[in-house]
Amino acid sequence: MKVIELRMTVTSSNDRDAEELRSELKERGIFLVNLMSAPGSGKTTLLSRTITDLSGRAEIGVMEADIASDVDALRIAELGARSIQVHTDGMCHMDAGMTRAGLIEMEGERGIVFLENVGNLICPAEFDTGAHKNVMILSVPEGDDKPLKYPLMFRKSDALVITKTDAAPYFDFDTEAVKRRALALNPEIRIFPVSAKTGEGMEEWESWLLSEWEEWRNA
Amino acid sequence: MHELGIVKHVIKTLGDVAKENGVKRIGSVTLEVGEVSGVVIEQLVDCWNYFREKNELVKNAELTVETLEAVTFCTACEKTYRTVDHGRICPFCKSKETYLLRGNEFSIKQIEAELIDE
Ligand SMILES: Nc1nc2c(ncn2[C@@H]2O[C@H](COP(=O)(O)OP(=O)(O)OP(=O)(O)O)[C@@H](O)[C@H]2O)c(=O)[nH]1
Ligand SMILES: [Mg+2]
Ligand SMILES: [Zn+2]
Fold it and tell me: In this complex, how many residue pairs, one in chain A and one in chain B, have their CB atoms less than 8 Å apart?
């Protein structure tokens, strides 16, 4: 028996699959955006509004990862957008292999594809899905101390969308504190407070998305 | 369940390692797990024992888990302290503006292996 020192992260095989998927998607013309959050933070509502607002300006598809149900995929399909459902069979996150398998159904699709990851703030942050951008959603009712509790997710995200800002008067939510805490963990993170209900802040988030998509296409 | 996914990834990674190093069989695997990585070690071992049966490469591999200390950093006074002793509130200045510096890692430290040309 020979001892082999490895010191590799458990996720290294996934990291490699994710890199491969990222370049494969570049060739297929799919800009993949991974959305991560706790359950019920308003992901599907944010996506629905984004799809409607950007109709004519961007082709958007959605891949819903859910432990067992189809409800979210049906909500997206009602808007006329391409939507597929991946069941994770009890797994608490999507990995690159599962994402690739789901995307086979997006054959021929080009444009932006959102992956609505499993609602959970821990595991999805640890597994690279192969997405080009990672976006975290934090809703006002969840509280402003989340960056302190789940630092990894804030570090891994390119953007933070703070949703349900219309509910701010009913919760003790200090947006400035969240910004400060998130930026301390990740100085590059872009922060967009939005309300999908009133439309407040949606434009800033949507123009960021469009400009990142454009930059990626031209890269 | 988190542990299930982790064990699947460990086994997959070990498959890659075996290919690269000409490994025939693995005799033991040592994992390093941060104190606050959220992984339940007993569950991890159970999942391991369940899955290894299905895989020739790791069928006889014993799993050892080493724990790494978790350390929190306080942004208010810039001191560090042991996370499991004090949690999120800084014991020096009582600030809540703290975050985990380390302690959530999860890595495969080493394996003992029987090589193909041995
Ligand atoms: N007030 C308010 N409510 C919102 C907003 N966005 C979403 N909601 C409500 O929040 C609830 C959850 O929204 P979803 O969009 O289903 O959240 P989700 O993150 O997709 O949920 P899961 O997929 O189940 O994890 C619904 O009742 C929405 O109507 C918002 O901007 N303001
Ligand atoms: Mg949803
Ligand atoms: Zn302090």
Answer: 94
Domain extent listing, chain A: 13-213
- The model's pLDDT over B72-91, given as tens digits with 9 standing for 90+, comes to 999 999 999 999 899 888 99
Q: Which fold has domain A13-213?
A: Rossmann fold (3.40.50)
Would you say the ipTM is above 0.85?
no
State whether A148 and B27 contact (CB < 8 Å): no
Q: What secondary structure does DSSP assign to A191-219, as a single string?
A: EEE--TTT-TTHHHHHHHHHHHHHHHHH-
B37-84 pLDDT, tens digit per residue, is 777 888 888 889 888 888 999 999 999 999 999 999 999 999 999 998
Q: Is the CB of A40 under 6 A from ligand 1?
A: yes
Q: For chain A, which residues lie within 8 Å of any Cβ of chain B, measuring from their own Cβ?
A: 1-14, 16, 90-93, 95, 122-123, 126-127, 145, 147-149, 151-152, 181, 184-185
Ligand 1 atom, smallest distance to A198 CA: 31
Contact A2 B114 (CB under 8 A): yes
Q: Domains of chain B by range and CATH? A: 3-69+103-115 (3.30.2320.50)
> pTM of the entire structure?
0.80
pLDDT for A134 equals: 97
Contacts of A121 (CB under 8 A, 6+ apart): A36, A37, A38, A146, A149, A150, A153
Contact status, residue A120 vs residue A93, Cβ threshold 8 Å: yes
